[in-house]
């Protein structure tokens, strides 16, 4: 279980200070695929980086399995990070290493026996559907395949948690669907608790059971995906769902009248009680080896 209690993060720069997170309270239970959604600059990456202490919160606490880890340093911090895998939008693979060697890297750092490490790396590559691609280099793979390598590498330490920061944002929609299906499979078969950071409601709908909506450094809404989709309460949630239009332009001059602007996101409002699409829990499982 991951708990964030009264968490805040203020960045200091030469331009002054900026509160990127304000009073964040969030609980992610074991087994969840928890979506955190918001527009660019909302504070999503800061939030997820506070979970594994890549960023230190300015105030508040991070609890992992009930233990306050906020001030972990040195060995304790390394151990914690090995229990929390992370993947990114741009994959972050080592370009000079083969697929196999990328997955072996965390096992080498841990000084695992070579034969055990090789066995583990091959098993992981099989799990992510990259059997037979061990000798390729990242540049010889599609985006979806590269993200599969980074997932295998993130799982090498057998983490209890996997943090995904915009992991599908650089991928087309079909590849996104196959990566999300793989993440669901990993959650189901390995019991890994997954946190998915995204700006796309379609990602939350396809993969998550719970969601937190973050806007202007604060969490404005949390809940089961099906209930938040059926009855969103925050304005930003309705906008992200396409149920409410976003002002297309700022007034140029306070005194000046500007022509009426066409809504950029014109959609029919849906029935308040009617869920959108198939709830994540009932979504059909896509093939995981579909993308090439
Ligand atoms: N290291 C930093 N120093 C100063 N400001 C930062 C730093 N990192 C992020 N920010 C600011 O904090 C806000 C939230 O950033 P981020 O968490 O990356 O948002 P998101 O991932 O939702 O796009 C942004 O306004 C960003 O400019
Ligand atoms: Mg971000």
Concise summary:
This protein is of the alpha/beta class and 292 residues long. It has helices spanning 44-51, 74-82, 99-109, 114-127, 143-155, 173-190, 201-207, 225-230, 235-240, and strands at residues 2-13, 16-28, 33-37, 59-64, 67-68, 84-88, 161-165, 193-198, 210-215, 218-224. Strand 4 (59-64) and strand 5 (67-68) form a beta hairpin.
SSE blueprint and pairings:
Layout: E1 2-13, E2 16-28, E3 33-37, H1 44-51, E4 59-64, E5 67-68, H2 74-82, E6 84-88, H3 99-109, H4 114-127, H5 143-155, E7 161-165, H6 173-190, E8 193-198, H7 201-207, E9 210-215, E10 218-224, H8 225-230, H9 235-240
Parallel strand pairs: 3-8, 3-9, 6-7, 7-8
Antiparallel strand pairs: 1-2, 1-4, 4-5, 9-10
Helix pairs in contact: 3-4, 3-5, 4-5, 5-6
Bound molecules: adenosine-5'-diphosphate and magnesium ion (MG).
What do these coordinates show?
The chain has about 290 residues and is α/β, with parallel strands linked by helices. It has nine helices and ten strands. It has a six-stranded mixed sheet with strand order 6-7-8-3-9-10, sandwiched between helices. Helix 3 crosses helix 4 and helix 5 packs parallel to helix 6. The longest helix has 18 residues. The radius of gyration is 21 Å and the shape is globular. The C terminus is likely disordered. Bound molecules: adenosine-5'-diphosphate and magnesium ion (MG). Adenosine-5'-diphosphate binds next to strand 1, strand 2 and helix 1.
